Every structure is written in C-alpha cells, then in structure tokens.
UniProtKB/TrEMBL annotation:
GO terms for molecular function: aminopeptidase activity; serine-type endopeptidase activity. This is Dipeptidyl aminopeptidase/acylaminoacyl peptidase. The keyword Methyltransferase does not apply. Keywords: Aminopeptidase, Hydrolase, Protease.
Amino acid sequence: MIKINNTFPLTVLLIFSVAIGYGQSVNRKITTADYAKWSTLQDEAISPDGLWISYSLQYDYGADTLFVQNCKSDRKLIFPSGNNAIFSSDGRFVTVSDPEKGLILQEFKSGKVQSFRNVSKHEFFAEAKYLAMLKKNVSSNELQILDCNTNKSYIFPDVQEFTISREGKIAVSTFHEVRIIDPAENFSEKTIAQDSAESFKNLCWSENGSAVAFLQQLPKDTLAPDNHRIIYYNLTDSKRYTLDGSTNEALMAQRIIVRLSKPALTFSPDGKRIFFAITTPHKPFTTEQVEIWDTATPLEYTQNKYRGNTNYEPKLAVWSVESGKVMQIGTVENPKAMLTADKNYAVCFNALRYEPQYEYDAPADLYLKNTHTGKETLILQKQATSIGMMGTSPDGKFINYFRDNNWWIYDIEKTKHRNITAQIGIAFKNKENDNSGSPTPYGSPGWSADGKYIIAYDQYDIWLLSPDESKTQKITHGSKNKVCYRICTNLDQENKTHNLDNLFAPKFDLTKGLILEVLGDNMASGYYKWYPNGSLKKMLFKESGINRIQKAKDAEMYICIEQTSALPPCIILLNNSGTFSKVIIQSNPQSKKFDWGQAELIYYKNKFGDNLKGILYKPANYKSAKKYPMVVLIYEILSHGLHNYYNPTEYDSMGFIPSNYFLNDYLVLLPDIRYKIDDPGMSALDCVESSVNAVKATGIVEENHIGIIGHSFGGYEVSFIITQTKTFAAAISGSAISDLIGSYFSYASNIPRSNTWRFEGEQYRMTSSPFNDWNSYQRNSPLPNAKYISTPLLSWAGKKDPTIPWTQSASFHMALRRLDKKSIFLVYNGETHTILTPELQKDLTIKTKNWFDYYLKQKTVTDINDIP
C-alpha cells in the first residue's frame, strides 16, 4: 500500500477551457467516505511482442493489485499484492513478485502457474528457454535454473552471486570459488578460481562473452577501504590473469576498491582491458572529539574531511590484461575521470581546483588523457562540469560541451575546438531557467548513432549539428506555433543506463526515425514520429496529458498514459504510424458516477509585462453566478500540470490535494511565477498577486476568503508573501526557510555542506553573498518582515528534515508568538522534508483542510486547538 503522494515536485484574463467534467451526467457529490474507491495507475509495462501489458492499481485505503492483461482479448490475470512484473523475451511468460507466495511464474498459453520462495534475483536468458533464480535461504543460498520448456530444474548450491553472458553462459561465485556453467553443454561446470581463505565477488562479463572478470577480497587490516585483487579469465584459451595492487609497481601499493553506485569493473569494447578504481589506504574516518573547521580548506568541514585530500579520492585505472600494463587514469593532481564512448580517452579534472566556490558543481580545468599511452593535454579551463554540460560522440572521436551560451565540439584527432551554434542565430541557452548561477542549455539528448551529428535543443525545436560545421539542420518547426519537440530518450534500453565513469553518450539511429514527445503552449501533448525523409507523422496528440511512453522491444507497438484534470489516467496502446490507438485500461471508472471539477488555463501579466499562465480549478457543479472561496497553491512553474488528475485522498505527503478542494466548493489556483535575480520573494509576491487579481476580475471569487499554501521553496514564498499583503485570509507553509541570511550560513551534518549553493547557484536566485547585498536578503526574507503579517499562519515541518532545518519554521513561529500574531506550528517527530508515515499524512491533510475551512468558510472545526 503506497501512501506517499508527491504530486508536486494582470491585466487581462483569458480563460481557455481544456477539460469539462468527465461524465457530465452527475449522480452525486463525492464525500470523504468515497475516497477509498480511488486508485493510482502505475508501474505499467509492455511485453516484447506487444501482446501483453502489466500495471498496478495502488490504493491509499486498501490492498494494491497487479494486473497482466492481453492487448487483443479481454483476458486479465490478477495478482493481489503483486509487484515487479517482468516479461520473458519471447512473450510466453511473466514473473511477478508476491510477498506471500514468492516469485510467481505464469505461462500465458497454458495458464500454468508456479511459485518459488526466497528468490532475491531472477533473470530469463537464452531467449527465455531458461529462468535463473538466486534463492536466499537461511542455511545456504542456491541457484536454481528452470528449463521453461521441460520444467526441469538444475540446482547449484552455495551460490552468492551470478551473472549471465549474452551467449547464455553463467558465471557464479560461491564463498571460495568461481565457476562457469554452460547450459549448452548439459550444464557442465568449470571452476576458474578457487581459494579457501578469501571470497570472490563483482562478477562481470565482457561484451562478447569471451572473458569474465571479478574481484577477490584480500585479508582485512586496520586500514580503509577494503583491498581486492582482480582476476580475469579468458574463455577462449582458458588463461587466467591476476592483478594485485599491493604487488604491482604501477599502482604503488594503492588499493583496488569497490565504490558506491559505480561499477567495480568495466571492460573495454574489445574485452582486452579492465577499468577499475583505486585509492591510497588510510585510517578509517572517525568522529573526532574536537573538529577543526578551517577557512583555509578548499571545502567546508565535513566535505573536506572526506573529499579534501585527493590522495584518498577514488581514481580510475586501467589494466591491459595480456601485456600486464597498468596505468592510473585519475591522479592526485586530477582525480576525476570520465571515459569517452570508445574508452580510448578520458576527460580528467580536479573538482577542488576552484574551491571554495558557491555553486553546487565546481568548474574545472579539463585534461584529455590517452588511456593507452598516458599522454595528457589541457583542453579547457574553468569549464562547467554539471550534468548536461558535456558529452561524447558514440565513436569517441569528439567531445561536446556547452560554453559561452553555445555548443562546442572538441575534435580529439585534430585537437581543435569549434563553436558549432554561434552562426545559427538561435538561442541554445535556456532563457526559461531563471535560477542564479551559470547559464544552462535547453539540452542535448545525445548523438546520431553513426557519430555524424550531435543533437541539440532550442526552446522549441530539435537540431542536427555536424561536428565539422558542414551541415546544420532543424528537423522540427515548433517555434511557429509554440510547440515544443523533444526526443523520447528512454525507449532504447542502452540509453537508459548511464555509467558515471563515462561521459554522457546516448545515441539514436536516425535511419529508423525518432519518436518525439510534443508539448503545445496550451498544454496539449502527445507523440509524433519523425522520419529520415524529414516528415513528421502524428501518433497521438490531444488537449490532454499524454506521457510515459514505452515501446515493445520486438514490435512497433507502444503504450502511454493519457489523462486530464477530469479524466482519470488510462493506458493507451498505439502504433508509430498513428493509424491505431486503443484504451487498454481506464482507471477509476467509478469517477463517472460523481460530479467533478474542471481545469482552465488563465493568462495574466506581472508588473514587468511578462506573459504568464496558471491553472484555475473550478468547483464541481460550478455555477457562474456564484462566488467561491479560493486556495492558491504556489511553487515556481505549475501550469505544465494542467492535465494532471488528482485522486481525492486523505493521504498526501504535503497535506494538500487540489481535488479535495474543488470537490468541496473551492476554487483552486496554481499560478506560474517568473523570477528576477536578487528578488525571489518580491517576484513571487508580484506574480501571485497578479494571478489572484486576474481571477478577482472575473467576479467568481469571494475576495475576503482567499487562502495560500506552499511547501519547501513554496513554503518560503508563502511565509514571505503574507508579510507584504493582506490579500490572504489564511496561509499554510510547510518545510520553509524563514530567514534567508540565517539559512545562507546554516550547515546540517547530514548534508555535508552549507546552503550557499542554493542561493548563489540555484533556487533562491541571489547573485552573491549577503555581505555584498545585505538589503536584498533582508528585503526578501520573511523573518525581518514578520511584524507586517496579519494573515493567520499554520506551519509545519519534519524534525528530521535534512533539506531545510525544522528550526527555520520554529524561529518564524517564535517571532509571530512574540508579535502576538496568530500562528500554529506542527512539528512531526521522525519525519523528513515531506511526511511519509500514513497516519501522519492523514493528520496533516485533515488539519490543512480544517484550517482553510475555518478561515475561508467560517466552519466550526474540532481540530487545530479549535482555532479561537
């Protein structure tokens, strides 16, 4: 059962209606007792042959259920409390994890069902002829391989780990040996490593399956981290090679290590080299009785303790197996290393070079290092290193990077830099990103598979740019009608995984065309197919929310989700030519029996003349002659959620769901906010008041009964806005910063850095420290302006919030207490930035509703200390 609902990450008013009530033949009004009927549709998947789909319906008030459904017939398999459906590659089977039965194996044609307990990992292989299952038992673990055709099982005891090559051979490790199992040879076993003292782990196959590599744990000592040796076994000639860091001169007694969230071993494309990580051994980090915080260190105390000494930083190295040559790629001078796609080069840098600095990711001087010869060349100085700023071509010949508001190419062979977008006359810098800090691009999803083009985005369109500047082609034309085109990057499994040791290198086969996700200025959405001849064909594009597309691996069939604010999510089956689409499952069909609200886009301007949008939800059974109370929900840009469908529920991690309100005779407004640098609070005030005034001008709102709510940065905005205006009769602020200067200098031990980057490089949109512009920090801070508040405030925070200390909200509450202002502060012990415990979610949701009902509807409540 899932209880976490993270649904949010003026002059002229024009209203464009995009969703009328779903099923206008209304039966009755929704009550709280009806909420239990609603479920959330998620975890959808399509089988490789496109004939089956799986999905889960998760209930806030009951048991979850997984369904597997045939796309052509009405056949449906139901798995109460099931999860993680995985289809076999041939589409004959599906596995489902069940908390009581274990792993369920269902055959579609015969209907045969088997279950296997204590399975911790499973995998179909050999074109789904076999199912491998690692079973974790109390006394001993075992690998069971089931022949899916004959139902015969093969059991291998004491297996701790297994991995399967593309050819179907299985490498397994026990505590003290590694074996190769060959199903093609009647499951013959061959021991390739054995040691009674130390264990083996981190098995890894080469791409062509001709070699396997793994680590052997070496004896522990008083130093950290644990040390290992690498063993490489060549299946072609049955030769075994070993690399031990403690005896290899090139490694200078450095330790071969396992890093968190990164592969322990990686093969080169030809399978003849192994990339791995090393570091200098050191005493284990401990908690000192006296911490020495020194302004001279490159990083703040906690970060500096773990990352301030590059000797101890993990560094990439490479082992050429047959020659025995070992070379460090990362060094003490430049410990960070990211490999090009062919792994012949690495971009190396020292992230400490420009510290201290006050953005999240430091710029760096980039060196290109040949991973064969060790030759290193400086190619860029003070280059941004954050995600999305660099990449490599799939052939490894070029490095792309964003700099000076343009895309550049570094030609490795010719050692030449080229600015490939300056002459186009189109902005590739993201002008919609109004955060402080370094400029960012609209993005680059990757390269063409043949390496002929880097793909880049402007505000609306997709460009193919040749690295030698010989050809520039815009393949979409969205700017004319303000329609944004982007490539669906998640359809190819190879592009879904990103190894952090590698430069970003997704690739797209242009000869097969591209599936594009499309978003209109009016929030219409869907998918188009781009063909190599330059034509575009609509697959599905409507005035609704269409997303989450997936492709059947071996068929030109797709599934996606469609919803509107009034139509619950459904799964659509479609093809890429736009000639076929079908609703496979409509969630929450009971919603047709109830009255619902409708969402509309509103258009307004702030005082600078910026054109802005927002969402206005009108109440269920709305009457134009009637005025309604209104709640304003704020957090940066929200209009993209126009078609989001919100289940009514008492279980929300932030205590507020729009449907709970527009189903209860409230207007709900979600305005967009555009920011001016050094004025985040004032910008929010301007945009929010402008949007509220636009709604007021229609005459449908009770002007004395308007509330405002926000969480996190939105909570900060709420706390600030009510210091500047008397527009709001009630306010709710969750997990909010109240003192910008205090927050700038705050430091939490569980986030080992201060908040400076949030201000000078991100959301709080300041260009410098308070010492350079004290007035801007004070002007935009709720606490110094608290005396001007007349709006009753309900605030809340989790006492274990690692993002914003709960004491920020406590300080604001104490200020309001001293000023004799109406304020109630809820502190949730054990909770973090959002509320995760179901009963506490319900508590916050009910208290939020009671607060607004009391102040905006004058209802009597029996909570929040009975609100005097």
